[in-house]
Amino acid sequence: MRPILLSGHERSLTQIRFNRDGDLIFSVSKDKIVCAWWSANGERLGTYNGHQGAVWTVDVSPNTVLLATGSADNTVRLWNIKTGDCVKVWDFPTAVKRVAFSPDGSQLLAVTEKRMGFLGTIAVLDINYGENLEDQAAEPSLKITCEDSKATVAGWSFLAKYIIAAHEDGSVSQYDPKTGDQLLNVQVHEFDHQINDIQFSPDRTSFITASKDKSAKLLSARDLNILKTYPADTPLNSASITPKKDYVILGGGQAAMDVTTTSARQGKFEARFYHKVFEDEIGRVRGHFGPLNTIDVHPSGTAYASGGEDGYVRVHHFDKSYFDFMYEVEREQMRK
Amino acid sequence: MSRSGNRADWADDEEFDDPSALPAQQVITNKDGTKTVISYRFNDDNKKVKVTRRIKTTIVRENVNPQVAERRSWPKFGNEKGHPAGPSFDTTSVGENIVFRPSTNWKAQAKEAEKEGGEKGSMKDQLKDKKVKCRICSGEHFTARCPFKDTMAPVEEPTAGGAADTGEADAGGLGAGKSSYVPPHMRNGGSGGGDKMGGRFEKDDLATLRVTNVSELAEEQELRDLFERFGRVTRVFLARDRETQRAKGFAFISYADRSDAESACAKLDGFGYRHLILRVEFAKRAT
Predict the structure, then answer these.
(1) Which residues in chain A are closer than 8 Å to B101, comparing Cβ atoms?
(2) In which region does residue B64 sit, left (phi positive, over 0), alpha (psi from -120 to 50) or beta (all else)?
(3) pTM score
(4) Which of A184, B25, B87, B190 meets the CB 3.0–4.6 Å disulfide criterion with A43?
(5) Superfamily of domain covering B203-282
(6) What's the confidence (pLDDT) of residue A102?
(7) Per-residue CA distances from B23 to B20, B29, B42, B48, B223 (Å)
(8) Which of A1, A246, A282, A326 to mutate to test the interface with B (most CBs of B within 10 A)?
(9) What is the CA A297 to chain-centroid distance, rounded?
(10) Where do the domains of chain B lie?
């Protein structure tokens, strides 16, 4: 496979998202610009300009009408995807590290940083898709405050039944999105090893965490049971579950501050593929010359994109050998 | 004549073609459905360049969601506003090909590849200890740099017949014996140099196999799989027809190591592949 290199950013990538149809890719980086790309040929559709600080996070509404971004300038911005106009700005007291649309797109959650005397929070905003997109609620409909350990990333479970948040201390918790009560809190990763990413399976019944403790774990959304563990030899920044084939992709590498002192080979700047069920590592894809900060998989499982500290987005369309690979037991199952 | 001399007369324009004008673009439709487009442009040195392009149009039909189709017509915005359709070179490029084949024992394979690399490294180390030795005067420099290059024959090289001593004397000092000048390449009976360039074989040819009687339906990857059993293959070239993209029936396989190539040649010559019997031999050097 020949990767498509997207070099629209001048600084390290922070998050990449495919839209639900998989024809668009949205990438954000520390250089304040949000880019939209066609996934098929890597053509840039446009940029969303307006943020005043590093953009930490991006998410697309399921109908590809609105784009939400969270930034270090303490705002969440809502953009009209088609025109590139900013339709709404919400101000927060601290930087926003993660935004995520609910499965039906009617709600948006925003994880805010713990800083300057403010505790980390998860705010839930109601989203309207009327004629006038600028007509949005002014205040969050719910605010969950994380007293013990700040939330680093969060997302919505199946049917928006729970909000799942991962914390700086390596724990994962489950909240009720109506009342804001914490239902469960499980220490899944080593204590004090931050969880850098959670991504859900297509049906949102399970999700994968990527942690600084050099492992990724597959958890069930309902009871936060650890289903699978994928050990790696480097701190992980991102993990994604692939549809169509039962793989997971992990990305990481040496911490950004140590990169200049290590060679590309030692840095382990590779995307690692594991079999989701058997937990075996089945291959790696090289290419980045900095740690991988973010990975996202095409919703139909035919491609994936990775963004690195090196400022490049690499879009890989899988070729036949990727789809052909099967374990002997899987093959036997097929024959029956 | 008060008019400035360097400006051409308006009347001349009619008679002489303006040399800066470019001929019009020509489009020729070929029999096989392709189009040949001949256009002219100026390059960076302001020279006229003729560009001939053969274009084959393939229509790929794809069914997409109507929403996706509608999005396709969206105009560009933001920093891309007003840019023409199609990927722009400053933001989008294509990386080098990555071979990604999932397998359960990929670690062992990777280790093997690394070991191969390591062996190469050790070979380099072996060579590092070798001293440079001049073939003419046995000094510590390359033969080509020898100060006696033009005056002496290489030590080991047996000079023809008994005329060795006299030949050396003749060709030697300026003006000694015969007074006429002998150019360096004519000294020692003309065997002094020249044919050494590049060695007898190009390095690549040493381990390249020519495979003939290959099926028309063969794929490069299949050949690679077949030949990789015997050692590391550095290059697979399968000749294809330009129009039909079908294999022409022969291929070249280069190995990193000649011994691998030899074993492959021995094993695969006469091997039944697809419906044909392969003929494998060492590639002859192109003259």
Answers:
(1) 283, 321-322, 325
(2) beta
(3) 0.66
(4) B87
(5) RRM (RNA recognition motif) domain (3.30.70.330)
(6) 94
(7) 10, 19, 11, 10, 47
(8) A282
(9) 10
(10) 129-197, 203-282
